[in-house]
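Weekly sync, protein design subgroup
Attendees: M.S., D.O., the rotation student, P.L. (late)

Item 1: inverse folding check
M.S. brought a backbone from last month's batch and wanted to see whether the design step gives back something sensible before we order anything. D.O. pointed out we never logged the input encoding, so this time it goes straight into the notes. Structure tokens as presented (281 positions):
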């Protein structure tokens, strides 16, 4: 079943995934994947489909990051695009440690996974490494109707858009005693919600900040800001790489390459080209 990756990430949050990272687990000792990678000269990378601006129609920020990462490792990047399954566990099984029953996968690594301590502790077949960006929720709003985001009170009277069955959806239904509920408008996709924002159907949209930044880039009528909701602002998490457990050489090579790209400012530059503000993971 095809599932929007933004929705997938929010469902993980709704399920209680904690978003603090204090360190990465030690890698085990095997290296079968690394032997294959060095022999072939190619790094197979799994990307979500339909996940603009990170990976969509064969391009995006994550695709560029993976290309830069592979090049730094002296390899060629070989992409594997896939539809998100019902949950992150399914995606990791299909694309990292086992492969899909339809015959594709696994890849050598999967990009744009939550590097989260509690979630990592539940995984016995996958390592989460090399965080390169930090995501959080934000609001794109119509400056012509709202001066700033110092308060959410304007949305008591102005319509507000969310993607159905997401954390913003649940939050705005109950926030501040439910005072915004009557103005909430639901959309199947973020693209539909942004179209409603541009047309004036809604005055604001809440979603992942990276997606919002790219969606309204270059239009000063629709700034992106942090809503004054304490519960939402605490929901921030690093994104990084997933590899099969027991691949220390592959893990070390990826982490060294990613650390170099971050130190040199290349990750920040890549994200900026896709209209995403880099945030320290």
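Designed sequence read out in the meeting:
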């Amino acid at each position: 079943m095809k599932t929007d990756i933004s929705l997938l990430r929010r469902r993980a949050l709704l399920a209680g995934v904690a978003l603090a990272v204090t360190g990465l687990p030690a890698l085990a000792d095997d290296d079968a994947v690394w032997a294959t990678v060095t022999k072939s000269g190619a790094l197979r990378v799994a990307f979500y489909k339909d996940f603009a601006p990170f990976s969509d129609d064969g391009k995006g920020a994550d695709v560029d990051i993976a290309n830069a990462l592979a090049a730094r490792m002296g390899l060629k990047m070989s992409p594997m695009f896939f539809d998100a399954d019902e949950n992150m566990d399914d995606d990791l099984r299909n694309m990292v440690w086992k492969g899909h029953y339809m015959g594709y996968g696994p890849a050598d690594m999967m990009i744009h996974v939550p590097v989260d301590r509690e979630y990592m502790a539940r995984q016995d077949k996958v390592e989460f490494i090399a965080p390169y960006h930090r995501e959080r929720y934000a609001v794109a709003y119509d400056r012509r109707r709202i001066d700033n985001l110092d308060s959410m009170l304007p949305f008591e009277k102005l319509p507000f858009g969310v993607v159905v069955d997401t954390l913003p959806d649940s939050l705005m239904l109950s926030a501040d005693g439910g005072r915004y509920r009557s103005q909430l408008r639901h959309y199947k996709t973020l693209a539909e919600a942004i179209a409603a924002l541009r047309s004036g159907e809604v005055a604001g949209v809440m979603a992942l900040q990276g997606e919002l930044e790219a969606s309204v880039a270059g239009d000063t009528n629709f700034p992106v800001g942090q809503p004054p909701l304490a519960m939402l602002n605490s929901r921030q998490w690093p994104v990084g790489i997933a590899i099969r457990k027991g691949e220390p050489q592959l893990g070390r090579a990826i982490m060294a390459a990613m650390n170099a790209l971050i130190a040199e400012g290349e990750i920040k530059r890549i994200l900026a080209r896709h209209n995403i503000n880099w945030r320290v993971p």
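Discussion: The two ends are 30 Å apart (CA to CA). The chain has two domains: 5-135+238-273, 136-233.
Action: P.L. to compare against the previous round before Friday.
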